[in-house]
């Protein structure tokens, strides 16, 4: 092949035991005209996957498989991985690279390696493929079996499985819904709904024992601008935001084709609000809505509600304005049974005026409020049959006046610091 041509790389991710190794073996034994190099990463000292792949496929004999036996592909091993892929590119004895990320790796950082490091000049990302264990996914998000919501890696480290499953789906170009034999048609329909809500444009193929079409898997599937469900819900709401000032019903509850607004009626103590709750389109049988208030939440109340969301919520994410820590832009993230808040930098509205002006010039899309600037509580909820009214009411109970004199409670203020609101038993 032309040595200057970029080599396509497919990053394969998925939770432990989802069927990545099985799929790789299928890939290698059905490679056809493809000359595939596989880079297998496994946490822990024994590189089981690489051995299995090497054992089971003649195609790997002669160095087709490069083993990385220590550490996680996305963190400690970043340097080694970079060196390994650059060396592989120099050898150029293949026309497609497949990297299997460890079961607890985030696929995003692995793919970024091929965009930002020395490897970028030699590779093009062809696709981020996430293998999903349909049974496990159904249990975690559709049936809700709390026993199975912690991911344990071979080095004994644990973290909430739901976070990983969600992140792996949210960054995928293709989801291989494996172990189709272990779920019913109804369960598959539910799982597909959830996956499509998390990642609206993703391709989904159902497989048993990783039997995916090899040409399709290796084709150019990557779309770096593909929408993530929660962000799409927010943007959808922003597009329609103009509607909130055109409430012609006069009762504070305007309706448009796929939007439902709540403005506080006079006298409820929140007249200052510039608030709206709106639905994203109910395209996938799963609903999402955005809760927005131009006011802070009481820290204890926010923790109580956001750390204890109903099981119907699969994914929630957004910005939090916390009373008592009014300068800090917090982000909130929930995936199934785990939820946490991260302290970000300051709100733009708290910066010196010239910095605000510069920022706003560079980000004309920012939703700026005359009085509060970018300060807001803005949360997207995605799930099935969420009792929206109850959730909105529960949150509204903890809305305070901007500037309310309360302590910030357990909320950390150093940028990057996390506060765990909920986690499955045994996590972290
Ligand atoms: N019933 C069923 N079992 C499957 C299927 N695909 C894989 N398995 C089994 O699931 C187990 C895990 O599969 P692997 O391919 O090792 O999964 P993996 O994602 O590579 O696992 P890790 O390397 O631990 O992350 C194995 O026992 C497979 O035989 C499937 O479609 N249906």
Description:
The chain has a 7-stranded parallel β-sheet, with helices on both faces. Mean pLDDT is 76; it is low at 43-52, 54-65, 69-76 and 242-284. It has helices at residues 20-29, 48-56, 78-91, 107-116, 134-143, 161-170, 185-198, 214-218, 229-239, 299-306, 353-362, 388-396, and strands at residues 7-14, 36-41, 65-68, 96-100, 123-133, 150-152, 158-160, 174-178, 203-206, 255-256, 259-260, 276-279, 287-293, 313-320, 328-335, 338-346, 377-383, 418-422. It is globular. The longest helix is centred in the first third of the chain and has 14 residues, at 78-91. Helix 1 runs parallel beside helix 2 and helix 5 crosses helix 7. The protein has 2 domains: 7-218, P-loop containing nucleotide triphosphate hydrolases (Rossmann fold); 229-422, CobW-like, C-terminal domain (Hypothetical Protein Yjia, Chain: A,domain 2), CATH 3.30.1220.10. The chain is an alpha/beta fold and 428 residues long. It is built from 12 helices and 18 strands. Strand 8 (174-178), helix 7 and strand 9 (203-206) form a beta-alpha-beta unit. It binds guanosine-5'-triphosphate (GTP).
Summary of the model, kept short:
The protein is 28% helix and 24% strand.
Please give the structural blueprint.
Layout: E1 7-14, H1 20-29, E2 36-41, H2 48-56, E3 65-68, H3 78-91, E4 96-100, H4 107-116, E5 123-133, H5 134-143, E6 150-152, E7 158-160, H6 161-170, E8 174-178, H7 185-198, E9 203-206, H8 214-218, H9 229-239, E10 255-256, E11 259-260, E12 276-279, E13 287-293, H10 299-306, E14 313-320, E15 328-335, E16 338-346, H11 353-362, E17 377-383, H12 388-396, E18 418-422
Parallel strand pairs: 1-4, 1-5, 2-3, 2-4, 5-8, 8-9
Antiparallel strand pairs: 6-7, 10-11, 12-13, 13-17, 14-15, 14-17, 15-16, 16-18
Helix pairs in contact: 1-2, 5-7
The chain binds guanosine-5'-triphosphate (GTP).
